[in-house]
Amino acid sequence: MTAIVVVVAAAGSLGVIRAANARTADIERVAGLGDVLAVKGDNAVRTAGDRVPVGTLDLDTPVTYGTENYLLVGSDSREGFAPDTDFIGSTADVGGQRSDTMMILHQEGNGGASLISVPRDLWVPIYGTSRSNRVNTAFSDGPLTLVATISEALDIPIHHYVEVDFQGFQRIVDDIGGVEICVDRTARDTHSGLWLDIGCQTLTGDRALAYARSRYYQEVGDDGKWRTDGRADLGRIERQQSFLRAAIGGALRKIESDPFSTGDTLAAITDSVKIDDALEPIRAAQVLRQAFQAGLRTFALPVYNDTVGSAAVLRLSDNAEPLLDYLRGTGPAPDEFDTSADTGGDAPTTTPPGG
To answer: Is residue 133 one of the residues assigned to a domain?
Structure first.
């Protein structure tokens, strides 16, 4: 979800960035993350003078930038939705908010960028407590707990935090003209009302959200019967990454053909996004625009299935270190976990230690 927000904001022309600059004061800030965010982010505001005047930007001149990690969070808050919203439910179904989607946007030093999904069912120690749980539950204690939990569990620095809710995601998808998704089998999710015909179709906001969030995804098998995707969270991550690749490609094509058409999308972004108190949006847009032009890859965090009591969970695999080193900025991108060209098939799953 939030990856689309970042791409649209980062890929704009100077005119778009000027429009964004005029609205950055309206973006909601998440205060109090200074103790858990890494302090050396290139795109951080350290003093009032660090804010980048838009007149100083030259998008045709390359800039120098270091390695940074953004934690991108899609919140499942139902606030602002009518009780009869078909695809996601309402505040009566889920009170408050939880982190429904978590990704790490990795900005390579003077290089490209990548997206790494964090499975919501990953079993980790919860920061500030003596208990472990699924990682998405950490958000119930606030962004600080979630940031610190992921940073400590993976032993990686998190430099910035970006959050978007359901309503913002739907508006942004609608504003970029929807996202084309192609499937080779009829598919559905009876819990959300999602239905996909064989072939390609453009998903607007509500259907796009249902597809990206689907946890009860079914396809028609060769025998004509409905078959549920048994990969649970891993299948969901694969669909999200496939969706994001399509959405990012569509957003970039729209911006390239008509850069000033993104004004409504920028309005949707600034109305729906929350960012950490230190993030300098204009500097980040300039850097990420260059990073995306250098290339955008997706990776799957290697995990294995386990149970805790009667609950099915995922645990981090022992062979995850090459990918974690990449996120730390101390190692190259590990090709074995690259899912960039994978529009189908399983996300990397490994055997439990000793299994």
So the answer is: yes
